[in-house]
Design brief:
mainly alpha, 2 domains, two-stranded antiparallel sheet, 2 strands
């Protein structure tokens, strides 16, 4: 279905606006100015979405728990993020006397900066990517790996045993599930034949009748997507994988000794990481900016991208309000005894899918292998631990 000129221009509205602004500058400065404008747009849009998401999350969790949520500051409580921001700005910045002041200061900045860098390679619409790199997926994961460094910097520099324990928990968890996250993405690279995120979206921007060719609609793609979602939840320290911030054991984890705006930066970094990893999942498995049906291709591409990202954020919120926190041994056992072997098997299934050629045979064979592996590994890989009966004695 051919889109009208109005919708074509609406799809390109941000590109048109950028070109109009840089048109006032000398020709030599226009490329650099275009990049700067793109950076400004990313820095403005995603923190704004962060502010709205904090309200939606509070209201969503309140709805799940049968309470009201924010409703006093502004209409329907939507000015609550402004009040929170003012509070964070005016609160005293307390730094422990024995802490390493420089590293303590740099840790939240490193976290936020590296997360922002990941947005540079995400295609947020048709021709809407800040830096179109041939190895964009590799760059994204390289930036994501720096978050472990910032978490360890925060825990170690605080000179607090609870902060250090929280940091070590977080680093162990993030490294373990980052392996699963990477391997689940390798399946997409094997089929698309590219590390470029725009090209991965282009490979999925095809239709059979009204239905899209998104990778999630294949047996190996669905399996990789499920592993990706689980690993992404653990990577962002979201419930039920929020053990590094376990209040009952660690007070608040690696950022126990942070207050004021530094704590707000950690809070911002966690939500930006959710947006970033949701954007990557949308790009790899859900067709990126492509429409869900062929008769909807007239709508602006950036609307589809942000709609899918916000749907992913809703799932994060839903999981947080539904599932209890895991134990540390359960968390690590699942990563190394189930998720990693299943993801490795899925890579072999992906290769089998690729070389079997079109037809129903590969659907049956690949689905059977994955279903059998899921049943067997779920039964034998994760063994229930039988603890002895508890005994209670009074201290003498």
């Amino acid at each position: 279905m051919a889109a009208s000129p109005f919708f074509v221009n609406l799809d390109r509205i941000f590109i048109i606006l950028r070109d109009w602004i840089v048109g006032f500058l000398p020709v030599a400065l226009r490329p650099a100015a275009g990049v700067v404008l793109g950076v400004i747009a990313i820095v403005a849009v995603f923190p704004g979405l962060f502010a709205l998401t904090t309200v939606f999350e509070r209201k969503g969790l309140a709805r799940i728990q049968n309470r009201l949520g924010p409703n006093r500051v502004g209409p329907f409580g939507f000015f609550q993020p402004i009040a929170d921001g003012i509070k964070a700005l005016i609160k005293e910045d307390v730094v422990p006397f024995s802490a390493n002041a420089l590293v303590h200061f740099l840790a939240p900045l490193v976290l936020v900066v590296t997360v922002f860098m990941g947005f540079a390679v995400l295609p947020m619409g048709r021709n809407m990517v800040l830096v179109d790199m041939d190895s964009g997926l590799l760059f994204f994961f390289a930036m994501g790996a720096a978050t472990e460094l910032s978490v360890f910097m925060a825990g170690w520099s605080s000179r607090n045993k609870y902060s250090l324990l929280g940091a070590m928990r977080a680093v162990a968890q993030m490294i373990s599930y980052e392996v699963v996250l990477l391997l689940s993405s390798v399946a997409i690279v094997m089929v698309s034949g590219s590390l470029s995120l725009p090209r991965i979206v282009d490979a999925q921007n095809q239709y059979t009748g009204v239905f899209p060719h998104w990778y999630i609609f294949t047996p190996w793609g669905l399996a990789a997507f499920i592993m990706y979602v689980i690993a992404a939840t653990a990577e962002t320290n979201r419930s039920p994988f929020d053990l590094p911030e376990g209040e009952s054991e660690l007070v608040a984890g690696y950022h126990t000794e942070y207050s004021g705006f530094k704590f707000a930066l950690f809070f911002l970094g966690e939500y930006l990481a959710m947006f970033s990893i949701s954007g990557l999942g949308t790009t790899l498995f859900l067709g990126g900016w492509s429409a869900p049906f062929s008769f909807l291709t007239w709508a602006p591409s950036w609307i589809w991208f942000f709609s899918k990202v916000m749907l992913s954020i809703f799932i994060f919120i839903w999981l947080r309000g539904t599932l209890p926190r895991l134990r540390q041994d359960q968390l690590m056992n699942f990563a190394w005894k189930f998720a990693l072997p299943f993801t490795l098997l899925n890579l072999m299934v992906t290769a089998l899918w690729r070389f079997m050629g079109p037809g129903w045979a590969r659907w049956v064979v690949c689905s059977a292998i994955l279903a059998t592996a899921y049943a067997v590994m779920g039964r034998f890989a994760i063994q229930k631990q039988h603890f002895g009966s508890r005994s209670y004695r009074y201290a003498e």
